[in-house]
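Trying the structure run again after the queue cleared.
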Amino acid sequence: MVKLTALFSRGTALSQSLDLPRVDDFLQELAAIQQTGSKRVALLGSRHVPLTHQQLIEMLSYALVLSGNRLMTSGSAGTNSAAIRGAMRADSNLLTVILPQSLARQPRESREQLDQVIHLVENPANDQLPLADASALCNQEIINRCQQLICFAFHDSQTLLDTCRYAEEQRKVVTLFYFD
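Done. Tokens:
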């Protein structure tokens, strides 16, 4: 076993014993974070996002795509819509949007934005599912295609938190930001 101690800004130390395979996982994640080449980054988050946060998310997605990364998201309002706007400004060829259901099931205002997306994946087989179930399946599909997940959520955003756990189980680099 290897003992890992992290010192936090308040001077509090946290010690955790790790088995050697966990250290290997940690080193793989560190290498992925430090990778300077392009990556497949998933950017997901809540629909209920204040405008100022949407602007920050748009700038983040713009910078990620401008740096040559491929961005993946879904098609809902809020976080995902902001990510689409930023990616489209940088390079629409590096954006993939995966919908939980068919395009026809999306709200009209979302469809107007999604009509501009070059790489759009629909899931009409999920049209009969409740949106929460279809979204969970969609998020898993996005995670399976990416190397890294950036997620914006509230502490009670169960579907998004489940997505983060799934991404960690798949050994993806996960960055989770909380709005609350």
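The domain at 39-178 is CATH 3.40.50.450 (Rossmann fold). Worth checking whether this holds up in the mutant runs.
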